[in-house]
Amino acid sequence: VCSSDLADTYCSRAAMVIHDVSDIPLQLRHKVCHARILDSKRRFQEAATMYFDVSQQTYGGQIATEDLKMLLEMAVVCAILAPAGPQRSRCLAALWKDERISTVSNYEILKKVYLERIIKAHEVKQWEATLQDHQKALMPDGQTVLQRAMLQHNVLAVSRIYKNIRIEDLSNVVEVPIKQTEHAAAAMISEKRLAGTIDQQTNLIHFKGDEDDSQSWDRHIQGICHRVSGAMDRIQCN
Q1: Which SS3 state, helix, strand or coil, does residue 85 take?
Q2: Residue 111: Cβ-neighbour burial (10 angstroms; 0-12, 13-18, 19+)
Q3: Phi (first) and psi of residue 176, to 5 degrees
Q4: Separation CA 218–CA 109 (nearest Å)
Q5: DSSP 3-state of 17
Q6: What DSSP state is assigned to residue 164?
């Protein structure tokens, strides 16, 4: 049995009695342990949700602000690494609304991911240096956990820009070999995390809008507002 599975077993046993515990720091430790186990098992969506939930609870001032911020940082990392799709988008939206979010170290890449912008290979490489080993481990398909997450994100980002695109062109945009790009898109479509179809005869991917037009418009407006705000800050500094 691997260490994460063993830890999961004991954490599950503790969950059966933790509600009888009145010690707040101990309750928090149990929740954080559970989140870390999910993180280590690469169940990033669940880990992000749990980290974020704990980071929002002040426990009557018994937990240091910096500790809660650290949990928020961990929630951001796991949310970015989670499989691209509607569930991840909802998690990113919740994180983005947190008043502390602009202070986290991964704010810039979070902003690009939330606003569904394409993440370039050199940006992925820079961010990789900040991750833990299991978050950038090599997978059986030859990609790392991070590379797979960023590929899925970029495919989703491209689907917001184009109605259809040749697989070869999509591969060039996301900077990933054609076979890996096609496999990622096909998997996302089959798992209903991406609305679209692949035409094998023409090698075209046709995207279908799966987001309410008003939500998409709101997202674009937010992006514009952030750019205007950044420009204003630079003008004031000068």
Answers
A1: coil
A2: middle
A3: -135, 145
A4: 20
A5: coil
A6: E
Please state the rounded mean pLDDT for residues 138-155. Answer: 93
Return the structure tokens found at 24.
């707040």
Dihedral-angle region of residue 61 (phi above 0 means left; psi in -120 to 50 means alpha; beta otherwise): left
Q: Residue 171: which of 216, 133, 201, 204 has the closest Cα? A: 204
96-146: pLDDT as tens digits: 999 999 999 999 999 999 999 999 999 999 999 999 999 999 988 889 999
**With contact defined as beta carbons under 8 Å apart, do 124 and 147 qualify?**
yes
Helix (H, G, I), strand (E, B) or coil at 166: strand
* 3-state class (DSSP) for residue 159: helix
The answer to whether 153 and 193 are in contact (CB under 8 A) is no
**Which residue type, as a one-letter code, is found at position 159?**
S
d(CA 119, CA 21): 44
Three-state secondary structure call for residue 169: helix
User: Who has greater pLDDT, 135 or 58?
Assistant: 135
The per-residue DSSP string of 190-210 comes to HTTSS-EEEETTTTEEEE---
- Residue 62: count of CB within 10 angstroms of its CB: 11
130 SS3 class: coil
Q: Is 226 helix (H, G, I), strand (E, B) or coil?
A: helix
**Do 204 and 164 contact (CB within 8 A), yes or no?**
yes
